[in-house]
Each structure stands twice: as C-alpha cells, then as structure tokens.
User: Fold this.
Amino acid sequence: MNERLKDFIIAQSSAAYGRSAWFEEDPRIKVYIRAGKSGSYTRQRQCLAICVANVTVADQHLRQGIFTALAMGLMQLGRSKGYTEFQIENASTDDMIGWCKKHELLVKPQDPGGLTWPDCYYTPI
Assistant:
C-alpha cells in the first residue's frame, strides 16, 4: 500500500466527514476509495468505514494477489485506526463477487424500501 493511501486512511479516521479519492500510483492496480464517516450496512447509523468503490487490476496482473494484499492491508490499517467496517461497492464481475464470497464478506441487506444491493458487500473490521 502506498504512502498517499495510508495517509488518506489515517487522516479520514478523525475527519468530520467522509472523502473519496483515486489512487493510481501502482501501475498494476487503480482503486477509488471512500473513507471516513459513512452509513453502515449493518446499522441505521453512521460508522467509520473504508469503502473500495471501484477497482481495476491490469489484465496481465490478474490473479496475482494484488487486490487481496491491498484489501487486507486496508482492513489491518483501518482496524488500528478505529474503523468499524470495510465495504466493497460495484462488485459487478464474477471475479470480484467470487473474491467477496471467498473472503466471507456479506451482501448488503435490503433497505427498508425493499431494494437489494447485490453488488455491495461489507464486513465488520
């Protein structure tokens, strides 16, 4: 995980509101992260969350553990800084859905209006 991403996660742990940013420093992976106060998938209140909203891994680097290393690093850093939830949104490919299931992330539950979010996953951290 690059220093700019670490600094962003750390800064957002005490920010008054959530922010998002693209991280493209590593030519193998491009990721859009939201971090900070967010609506919780498990509770009807705010939580401190790290959300991977979009990720692209270069084709020649697929299945090399690059995203897994990033996600595990984000969860570990998040846990140490008081974050309570790790989220993945827009899990629209079979590979990303499979990754979420393999790592035991849960599908976001139905909202009170009856809408489901099959492309959103989360796990407490």
Remarks:
- The longest helix spans residues 66-80.
- The chain has a mean pLDDT of 85.
- The radius of gyration is 14 Å.
